Amino acid sequence: MALWPRLKSTFRNLFHKPRVEDPLEEELHAYIDIIVDERFAAGISASEARRTVLAEFGGIEQVKQAVRDRRAGVGLELFWQDARFGLRQLWRNPGFTIAALAALAVGIGANTAVFSVVNAVLLKPLTYPDADRMVQFLRASNLLASNLVNVRELHAYQRQTSVFQDIAAYDIAGPGFNLTGDRPEQLHGIHVTQAYFRLYGAPVRLGRTFTPQEDLPHGGEVVILSYGLWQRRFGGDPSIIGHSLQLGNEPHTIVGVLGKEFLSDPAADIWLPFQFDPASNDGNHFFRVTARLKPGVTLAQANAQLNLATAQYHRDFPQSDPKQQFAVGMLRDSIVGDARNSLLLMLGAVGLVLLIACANVANLLLVRATGRNREFAIRAAMGAGRGRIVRQLLVESVLLSVTGGVLGLALGFAGVRALLAVSPAGLPRIGEDGSAVGVDLRVLGFTLGVSLLTGILFGLFPAFSASRSDLNSTLKESSSRSGAGFRHSKARSLLVVSEVSLALVLLICAALLIRTFIALRSVGPGFDAHNVLTMEMSLNGERYQKTAGVDQLLRDGRERVMAIPGVEASAAGYWLPNDVEDNALFRFVGRTTEKGCCVTKWMSITPGYLGLFRIPLLRGRDFTENDNAGAPGVDLINEALARQFWPNQDPIGQHIMRGKRVESIVGIVADFHNSGLARPADPMMMAPIAQVSDDYTAAYSNIQPLFWLVRTRGAPQLSIPAITEQLRIASAGFPVAHIRAMDEVMGRSTARQSFNMLLLTIFGAVALLLAAIGIYGVMAYSVAQRTQEMGIRMALGADRSVIRNFVVWQGMRLALIGVVAGIAASLGLTRLLSTFLFGVKPWDPAVFVSAPLILTAIALLAVWLPAARASKVDPMQALRAE
Amino acid sequence: MSSKPANLLQGTLDLLVLRALGPEELHGLGISRRIGQMTKGTFLVKPGSLFPALHRMEEAGWLSSFWGESENNRRARFYRLTKAGKRQLEVETEQWTAVAIAMTNALKAT
């Protein structure tokens, strides 16, 4: 059929009904009148002629309806009728509508919020050119797995040009840079190799990126600015190129400014060239390497090539860890990291909440459909087809779910902000303050899809159930109201059982995470974090490339801080005790060991560090001010290291070699959690900062800030101004950054667990509420339907308490079946949760007993109210009603 | 208009209406009588089939309608073929002929 006339007719048929209907009426009457005229002319009386013609015609209204049914747009018109009727129905039952919309809005809104974050973090492609070919280099051995690389390895990678292009190195956290001058400020900067800007497709706003010469040793002090810093510090001055930036009192020439749209990971204010020496033998792993696969090269091919490179590397550097293996993984996976699991857990949990909401709404609809049985039976008797009734119900439920979806979308917006507010710091890829998490087509599509699917899912069930019912029995049933709709009650029972079991699954997961959080919080870290203040300082500049310069600063700074009233102890170190990430290789003096031995966690500290954190010294002695550069080398070890390497002898007085230097072990300290509360203490060694080599000090000035630590007698925050002032004087003008109480640092270390727990607890509570409403709805309805039956029973002498217990038992039977099913499902599902758990087993008996008990108690409450109502039925009234 | 005459085969009604309107403009009753004439009384089209078909074909753009005077001076709605309707008549005639020949051959075959 031609499109245009059809569209025109559709429009006319829908919107100009009289212009279609009136001529039709006239046309049909003309048809009849012409025949009547002819018969009248043939001699039949006018009335007789009309009667016979009308009889032969076969009913004017039926012919009109036949014409209407063939008209263009009839489907649309029927839909419109159904929708209007549905809206009227919803409007007339505000209680039902509000309950259903609230359940849907919560279910869809929670899903939208979580999906928005999942979308931004996991699904959206990286914004770099050919990001699907960007890979990150990984290093694995049985000692440690990490994506940090050293210079030797970088050079080995850079030779693999058959599979990679644009191989670039960049450091991650970095110590920060002291922008000195009239407004001192600590800047976030990263060192990069020359290929970095090409690899990431960084747009250049002004000037240029680094030349190959500038990335070689003595290539000059050059710097590239971010758009933000350029605007903030220089007001977007277009002639900034060639000017100098004072970093750590040394001038750096500005050669370029990057474009506003460039989002680096990690974010940075400035970029500096690494200037690696091609002949460098530096074994420190302190930067990451990313590259792009050549077109057509797969990840597997690249890894096969890296296997060969690993073998070559071990031939070139026989002293390297022999178990070490090179590999690459997709960059996106590295950036997303372990946030992935948390987010997938959330998605699974909100999915369950949505299912429960659906079951709840289906239940409400089913209850309502039962109430409307007579309406449907009458419609069917008047000739409405089964399809028409199913369509009516589907249109109503889709109407409901789409409205719920719109509300859910609004709720989702608010939810995203709430979610980001409580989410652990450092969720990757969400932009500044979560600006990258927003509504895009994918989120809208997801919400719309979820709403429609929900509508169809929960609409279909009551629709078929209603349309299947037998006309005759329905009409009879509704005249005598005892024992309503057996099949419906079965369907509703099934929904209640599934609601209860899903809610129990969520509740058990939430309880397991709560136990995890409590277990983590009750772990003694092995040190005392109260009243300790931590501050970071970047040691830039010539003076701090030598150990002596750093040592001088530390002695001076600690002395000045100790003089401040209220300060109890002061110390410094390159790591905080809860998170030590450096390793050191050592050998035993006078003992042969296998190749590759031995590696341990390692950090350098000032005297007083142990005392400040109240870490017990078990035997031997602590470091003192006399353990300086001129004195013999000394080390402290923890119990774990003592157990590992000196199981049967006293380590104190034993000698080890680190590099070329011989050191003796002077003391053993108690284990403390040095790699997060969830893991046991790793074996660890400590050395005085004053005794580390100049190479080491120089390398650290580029990798890691120095942590100043102060223990105060009262709340540490009060002393902050005085302490920062003294440290600024001691360092000749350097700022301190990230001033935090150690308690806060410890709180952040469990932020992810607390986030998981909080969200799952909220979802569990919502699920519990929805399940309770579901049970209540079914029982209340059932009691209302059976008032007459209750009345008869009472009239025949049944006790009120018998009636009540009967109703309670009916409801609780459903709840208990749901609980059993929920426990079974949880036993299977909680195993998936095991990576999130700490200090609690996935089948923790306490959880598997208490969660079902809580749910059962709530269910009992939900059943009790209708049961109590049933037992108060007045038999005479119940019998007289209807 | 008894029910004796054969049920209209699916699709034949359109062709008969188009054919009836081929030479002249007719109102509803006229079309119905013209079809009776053309088929020598084999097909009698009832109003319940005729009017839905006419309206559908008009919406499809094959027919156009206008108000005119019947033979006995009654105001009646007349239909005529449009250009698209004439094309459709040719197409359907061809198709029907092909089907008819094929059916005849099939029934003759032994």
The Cα radius of gyration of chain A reads: 38 Å
Q: Helical percent range of chain B?
A: 40-55%
CATH architecture annotation of chain B: Orthogonal Bundle
Question: Taking strands numbered 1, 2, ... along the chain, how are they ordered across the largest sheet of chain B?
Answer: 1-3-2
Sheet-strand content of chain A, in percent, reads: 5-15%
Short account of what is shown:
The complex is a heterodimer of chains A (882) and B (110). Chain A is α+β, with helices and mostly antiparallel strands and 882 residues long.
Report on the structure:
The complex is a heterodimer of chains A (882) and B (110). Chain A has 882 residues and is an alpha+beta fold. In chain A, strands 16, 17, 18, 19, 20, 21, 22 and 23 form an eight-stranded mixed β-sheet that branches. In chain A, strands 6, 7, 8, 9, 10 and 11 form a six-stranded mixed β-sheet that branches. In chain A, strands 1, 2, 3, 12 and 13 form a five-stranded antiparallel β-sheet that branches. In chain A, strand 4 and strand 5 form a beta hairpin. In chain A, helix 26 packs antiparallel against helix 27. The radius of gyration of chain A is 38 Å and the shape is elongated. The model of chain A is unreliable at 478-486 (pLDDT under 50). Chain B has helices at 12-21, 28-38, 47-59, 83-108; strands at 26-27, 63-69, 75-81. A three-stranded antiparallel β-sheet of chain B has the order 1-3-2. Chain B is globular and about 55 Å long. The termini of chain B are far apart. Residues 1-6 of chain B have low confidence and may be disordered. Chain A binds chain B through residues 1-2, 4-6, 9, 23-24, 26-28, 30-31, 33-35, 37-38, 41, 56-58, 62-63, 66-67, 69-72, and chain B through 1, 27-29, 46-49, 51-53, 55-56, 59-61, 70, 72, 74-77, 84.
